[in-house]
Amino acid sequence: xxxxxxxxxLITIEDLSNREIEAVFRVADQMAENMIEQFGVCRGKVMASxxxxxxxRTRLSFExxxxxxxxxxxxxxxxxxxxxxxxxxxxxxxxVVGRYxxxxxxxxxxxxxxxxxxxxxxxxVINAGDGGHQHPSQTLLDxxxxxxxxxxxxxxxxxxxxxLKYGRTVHSLVFALARFGALMNFRxxxxxxxxxxxxxxxxxxxxxLRKYPxxxxxxxxxxxxxxxxxxxxxxxxxxxxxxxxxxxxxxKVRRGGxxxxxxxxxxxxxxxxxxxxxxxxxxxxxEIDKIYPVVDKKLLQEEKYxxxxxxxxxxRVGELAYEMDxxxxxxxxxxxxxxxxxxxxxxSLLLGAKSADMPERRQLSFVEKKEFLTYEMDTxxxxxxxxxxxxxxxxxxxxxxxxxxxxxxxxxxxxxxxxQETPPEYLPSLYIASSKWHQGLVENKRYYKAxxxxxxxxxxxxxxxxxxxxxxxxxxxKLGKRAV
Amino acid sequence: xxxxxxxxxLITIEDLSNREIEAVFRVADQMAENMIEQFGVCRGKVMASxxxxxxxRTRLSFExxxxxxxxxxxxxxxxxxxxxxxxxxxxxxxxVVGRYxxxxxxxxxxxxxxxxxxxxxxxxVINAGDGGHQHPSQTLLDxxxxxxxxxxxxxxxxxxxxxLKYGRTVHSLVFALARFGALMNFRxxxxxxxxxxxxxxxxxxxxxLRKYPxxxxxxxxxxxxxxxxxxxxxxxxxxxxxxxxxxxxxxKVRRGGxxxxxxxxxxxxxxxxxxxxxxxxxxxxxEIDKIYPVVDKKLLQEEKYxxxxxxxxxxRVGELAYEMDxxxxxxxxxxxxxxxxxxxxxxSLLLGAKSADMPERRQLSFVEKKEFLTYEMDTxxxxxxxxxxxxxxxxxxxxxxxxxxxxxxxxxxxxxxxxQETPPEYLPSLYIASSKWHQGLVENKRYYKAxxxxxxxxxxxxxxxxxxxxxxxxxxxKLGKRAV
Amino acid sequence: xxxxxxxxxLITIEDLSNREIEAVFRVADQMAENMIEQFGVCRGKVMASxxxxxxxRTRLSFExxxxxxxxxxxxxxxxxxxxxxxxxxxxxxxxVVGRYxxxxxxxxxxxxxxxxxxxxxxxxVINAGDGGHQHPSQTLLDxxxxxxxxxxxxxxxxxxxxxLKYGRTVHSLVFALARFGALMNFRxxxxxxxxxxxxxxxxxxxxxLRKYPxxxxxxxxxxxxxxxxxxxxxxxxxxxxxxxxxxxxxxKVRRGGxxxxxxxxxxxxxxxxxxxxxxxxxxxxxEIDKIYPVVDKKLLQEEKYxxxxxxxxxxRVGELAYEMDxxxxxxxxxxxxxxxxxxxxxxSLLLGAKSADMPERRQLSFVEKKEFLTYEMDTxxxxxxxxxxxxxxxxxxxxxxxxxxxxxxxxxxxxxxxxQETPPEYLPSLYIASSKWHQGLVENKRYYKAxxxxxxxxxxxxxxxxxxxxxxxxxxxKLGKRAV
Lengths: 484, 484, 484
Description:
3 copies of one chain form a homotrimer.
Chain A: E1 2-3, H1 18-33, E2 46-51, H2 57-68, E3 72-76, H3 90-100, E4 103-108, H4 113-120, E5 125-130, H5 136-150, E6 157-162, H6 168-179, E7 183-188, H7 196-204, E8 208-215, E9 227-233, E10 268-271, H8 285-291, E11 309-311, H9 332-337, H10 339-350, E12 356-357, E13 373-375, E14 403-408, E15 411-415, E16 431-434, E17 446-449, E18 463-466, H11 469-474, E19 478-479
Parallel strand pairs in A: 2-3, 2-4, 4-5, 6-7, 6-10, 10-11, 17-19
Antiparallel strand pairs in A: 1-12, 7-9, 8-9, 13-14, 14-15, 16-17, 16-18
Helix pairs in contact in A: 1-10, 2-10, 3-4, 5-6, 5-10
């Protein structure tokens, strides 16, 4: 079957099916094999490279990719030099640049910004990083690196360590690994743990998460600080193909004098630097620096890392020792180099200049994304993530809040822009009502506290959620007696 | 006849005749019709894109245009990163970059900077905005938008509102509209009125200006603040062609209880954002924000706006409501999109890669520019505009002041760089003499106050103007008795 | 013989032999002759243009050169926008960008930075200026300008004035001029004299340096401040070819009432601006401004300058009067324009897209570089130049100090990165030992003060140099009695 990605966007890694990801890899292989022949594939096409946050690697590899395809690049590399500095909205910029260029690549500090660009531009949009949210093209090249080394992603054991909290490359990567049937192991250093919304989403996918607190790692010096490990495995391991017979996981945690093995064999160790620029004061920056993990020869002398490839999205700071550069397991520079063929593949596919003929076979995803009801009424509920694009001064003039109702016990909303959830402490400010009960009857327009038992009485599809009691009253509702 | 613009500059919109502007539109139509075929028209040519002020739209559309023609781009996007930061003059930069590139596009905060670049570079130069002065390529696409919609510019009724003081796009546009026989209506909000030098120049063109103060507009909320309207019409309406029979202007101003209609029918409403970055402290910024006009559905429900297209050079801030985006009259995104074909046309014409075969017919300009005597002696008179390129520390070492004598009642000089006039308060510092009277006779070298009756006795072509009495004495003149 | 420079780096001008430099000129001539035909020579190739310091001229001319060859450019123009701002090392950046691009052009404020890039990137690297160290492509176009004018470089009289201390273009140029047999004359204004490490290196080449202090120049006003002149001539003037018969140097210095002519005839006057951005507080900036030389018509009216061409790497500030622009001797804008063909030649040669067939003849260098022992042990000695790449926080994690032992009377080490020498005041902190004496005998592991007579007893190839007594003791050495 022909995979044609023309006119598609890539905002989160979920925008591509497993087969489509494999189509990208197929084309990337062609690109890498004979790069010089690709010159002209995107002749006359223009890519807009809009980088509103520092970047070397991502921007330069996208621009190289477009150049190697024979296309042209227009670029913005500094927010201070653009009309955004004059107070222009992202939507306006998207509509204008979308009339100049044939494809837009955007990096922006606000989470959900790339989605807004895709919503308003008439051309394909690639998210090259939106705050701490996602960075899907990095995920593609991370997966490509794993695939090149191990031929398959199914059943691989991938250990992730470093900044799991603000590292957007990690957030994109784990969902993709899950879909391809890999097993994961999050080594969580204190203060930079995987965010709860990511863990919840992994559970929604049906994945099994097991947490082992206070693990002590022999190995590098920094290993002396205990950390928590979360082990993530596919919902039904029987569905894993035969070739991964060595997924024989024995949990081995040092506790009460006993050693339990956390992961018998690690196929890849994915390290990330601390995203200092995203840290908030309350994160206690200096404290974290001291206990941040370091990957060095000592850590990697453990038997389970004997064949593990070492990956890093780069740039590194101190978490990956220079002595590792000469180690044959180190793949991070090769991984960075894959950025060019993978992005050439991505650009040529989204521009419709290439398509891929893929074998007919069943879809390969090992997990299925759960669908939720969408809440779109503008009744005062707001995303509580201060970095979300939907709450910015210049953007809230036109962006209507939009959420998925991911839980009603307690009420939890996921912002469709930044994918972050409303925090529990927001719940007491919220009020609810039913759109059905009061039809035509003004006296039935009653509202209740969102954390009251009334939530269970309203069907999710009829739910109205108010940001405050005042929001409810402004719309003609009265406080219901039963629920105070 | 063949219109060949090869090697020409575009510094102000007056650099192109009406026929030449129509040639640009002719080529822009070809570009828009089949954009992909234009790749290669400027093969091997290099455009220097020098932006010393923030820009997204203009820079990216010029660069896109050059790329779509198959040419290359070198660019500077930040004054901090260039040798100008090392104290280099604009002239030196122009001479050097003019030896690298085949064409230069420049935006600069100093008024008249683009003219200096054109004076010193050996290649064509396009002014992409010089301070609050001009932005002629924007004017071309504004005119193109009007022409696309209404087929003609003759007799169109164009209302302009917003920041008429610092909005350079407006200053370029009004002269062009006048030349093509359009009628204009300036809705002047307090504090952002059209500068007097623009009004004077419109009068020089022979246009009729009528001012109606304190008009109240029904319509949008912001309309509650009264504003002045200046109505501008061609010198001889009889010269307007037949097809514009509906230019039946009835003036309707609310005054003394009577309503007078200011403009029966508006064909286009041209809105601009407040140019906050150009505002001076004494302009009283916050005050203006409160009364700044807002274009929204309410304003546009007036009958006269029924068919008006809404234009905006973008970026917008708050003066154009988001609700307008879905209104069929809104043209501003389409207008921005026209930037690419119009600039492709402009680049290919100035590079001599295209020419246009235009029908032979009489020139279409409805107004004629008045010619003035030029004053070029370096006798101490300086442009009083602190943003003029001619008074900058790095530039005054080589730029000689140069003025047009636009009036002698009282003496008023127009700087040939920034086109601003000497303000009345400068007059008392100036002194005059005649170059003719004293020929050979040292005792006749007398100077007089510039605001004295002696001004009338000296023929303009013999006039010497001193910046101060000291300047006069330094050149061997003595104070004349009669004129003290 | 075919000169093939494919895969070579250009970090200092010494990386190219005289014949190779002439090959660059040969190809530059072809480029200049028919520029439009070169489009396509580097088709499909990508140049990375990494500018971590302000630049217009150099960056734009390299980018123009690549564009005119039909290649593409990816560029970084601001350190604030890159991963270097995240604490990434230059080596990591080099390894990554070297996997994207086919050639790297780098400007960086740290001296020796380009060498590090070349050490780590797998593609050719061109140094476009590393701090105050070198700028060899500027030297190529300076030499090309001289050659175009005078047909030969042999025996030319070149006077250099301006900032000889921080002007990196001057430091690259003088070695090249020496190699081609030119004579030089450094007009040293107080505070901006030629650094001692440059003078030493010139002496190593066997050149004869004669200093005439307190010379008074007739000529320009600024000439009233006396300055020192250093006259540099080839080791064996007899080796100079016949055509330069007019190198008949009479020294004429005003001293004790007598006038001595310093240089009978100047063929080129090379002026540089004050490198204010490199000045340190202790340099006393304002003081220097007052006495900085100015090249103007008055200075150039001296007979010896009658045919001298005036060169300047630009940008100029105040040291080159605008009145010179119209003078036929002024070559600086033409010189800047040569940047494009010379850099086209350089890029196409290093990319292996061009080669040059040069006549077989003896090598033309009039001087020979002296070879020194290299000291590479990491025993605590550090380069004392605070702008050297090897001592920067992010770089010293992986760069091992490396020196040439250029003298042992007293001990003087030249850093292989920045080429600066250890200053005399560093000597008392250094200690020495011999690697030979103590072989196998722990009790013989003695260390001595580096400025003691023991230095003469140790053969340079056996020398161990410690950064401090503590460094020596840490490595198991004891203080030798005799040398305290």
